[in-house]
Amino acid sequence: MKTRARVTVVGSANTDMVVRVPRAPLPGETVLGADFQRLAGGKGANQAVAAARAGAEVTFVGAAGADEFGQSARRSLAAEGIDVSAFAEIEDVASGVALIFVDHSGQNSIAVAPGANSLLTPEYVWQHRQLVETADIVVLQLEVPLAVVEEAARLAKDAGVPVLLDPAPAQELPDTLLQCVSVLTPNELEMQQLVRFDDAVSGTPELAARKLSERGCQSVIVTLGEEGAVWFRRSGDLRCSGDRVRAVDTTGAGDVFTGALAAELGRGRPEKEALAFATAAAGLSVQRPGAQASAPGRLEIDAVVGAADPAAW
Ligand code: RIB
């Protein structure tokens, strides 16, 4: 097993505008909230930070505008030791922004204005293909154009590099993309949204995962919040129960799970242990506010995993 995985994340970076509210407003309603925070976010950037804090050597491929938000996003990643040489700065376009409500129970509602994230191109990924082809594992999500995700996945697959795809925000995925995916990491809602696009599938996560496997995806991990996660694999399923914790803010918990998982799988850690590590990382992140801000460090995660009962994995 390697000490540190080389993880390449191709994806989004946003600035999160966060308001804590008693509950998310209904259409036409104004809700008075509490404090406002501007934080570093974006699913791709969150995953990159989570992987770096979990100990990986991380490269981020993405795009932001030449504005203050973009510069701030770049600074946040660089401060984590992440290689941002392929984080493009695009003139005359706004950087990605997410408007986030976090309610009293820590649940979030998010609307994203993708800005420069939507201008990332397959050609740009191809120009930086060496970063994909030399990684131990590549991490993707769906906040950049699907053609970008497909190009990165294809390059990785052709180079024999495993692909971890977080299908968020959920959208219809072509079989050609699923055939490049080693591990798909939807949460329950995303899994439902994914299978709703496929008339042949209904019912349990097991059935949905099996159908996605038949379409070419190697394996599927469904994250279940505090219930943990289930990994549907051709070689047999793995389950990991979560810890009961008091959730302060669930924003980015899925990104933390994916980033931590990539850090461990990429260095060759056995899948059962990598799943326990990622589940523990996500459990820690929901106990703190923010997305990137909440990603735990390797020692903290190890302490939780070490204290857990392996029989519960
Ligand atoms: O997954 C959480 C992230 O989704 C936030 O950081 C926000 O930027 C959106 O991309």
Write up what this structure looks like:
The chain has a single domain, classed as Ribokinase (UDP-N-acetylmuramoyl-L-alanine:D-glutamate ligase, 3-Layer(aba) Sandwich). Helix content is 35%, strand content 22%. It is built from 11 helices and 13 strands. α5 links the parallel β8 and β9. The mean pLDDT is 94. It binds alpha-D-ribofuranose. Alpha-D-ribofuranose binds at residues 12, 14, 16, 41-43, 46, 98, 110, 112, 143, 251-252, 254-255, 291. Residues 12, 14, 16, 41-43, 46, 98, 110, 112, 143, 251-252, 254-255, 291 line the site of alpha-D-ribofuranose.
Which features does this protein show?
6-stranded parallel sheet; alpha/beta; 4-stranded mixed sheet; binds alpha-D-ribofuranose; 313 residues; single chain; UDP-N-acetylmuramoyl-L-alanine:D-glutamate ligase
